[in-house]
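for the recovery benchmark. tokens below, seq after
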């Protein structure tokens, strides 16, 4: 944890790693969407290079990264006011926990090739469980390093509540899009 505490890695390198980790975690779903589009809409005449795994990795990484950065940009200010924590430091640390969660999620998704029937529910439930475990570790880490002991409850309620609301919206979107596609 010294890497996080001392900020040994440049913020933009961490964001690039976060982008790649989101792409790895969402690669299979993005690949499926691109395959669906190539077969369902041949009249669009898309070139074949659009439907390869590299593009799936990039598309799978850019959308979650944008959503992540926008949400943390707004929520971090709110959390810092309520909990007295350092918002820039907490945002920096949170990226590391999400990178680790995304690597585990991407690795677990290779099981879907053995049993493709669990893909839709697996994308929602497994992602939620793994991300929640790493987010709980982030809350513990933040409580020890960034938040005053008397404000820990406020930080837990504001950060944890926001996480659950945002993840519920993402899960609902995932279920709806998984059923429709």
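predicted aa per position
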């Amino acid at each position: 944890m010294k890497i996080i505490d001392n900020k040994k890695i440049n913020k933009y390198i961490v964001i690039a790693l976060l982008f790649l980790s989101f792409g790895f975690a969402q690669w299979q779903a993005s690949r499926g969407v691109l395959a669906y589009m190539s077969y369902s809409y041949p009249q669009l005449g898309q070139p074949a290079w659009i439907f390869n795994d590299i593009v799936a990795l990039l598309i799978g990484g850019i959308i979650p990264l944008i959503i992540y950065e926008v949400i943390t940009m707004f929520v971090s200010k709110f959390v810092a006011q309520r909990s007295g924590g350092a918002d820039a430091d907490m945002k920096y640390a949170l990226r590391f926990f999400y990178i680790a969660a995304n690597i585990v999620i991407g690795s677990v998704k290779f099981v879907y090739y053995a049993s493709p029937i669990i893909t839709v529910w697996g994308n929602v439930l497994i992602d939620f469980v793994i991300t929640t475990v790493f987010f709980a570790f982030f809350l513990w880490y933040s409580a020890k390093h960034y938040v005053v002991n008397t404000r820990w409850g406020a930080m837990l309620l504001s950060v944890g509540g926001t996480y659950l609301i945002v993840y519920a919206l993402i899960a609902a979107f995932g279920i709806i899009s998984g059923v429709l596609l």
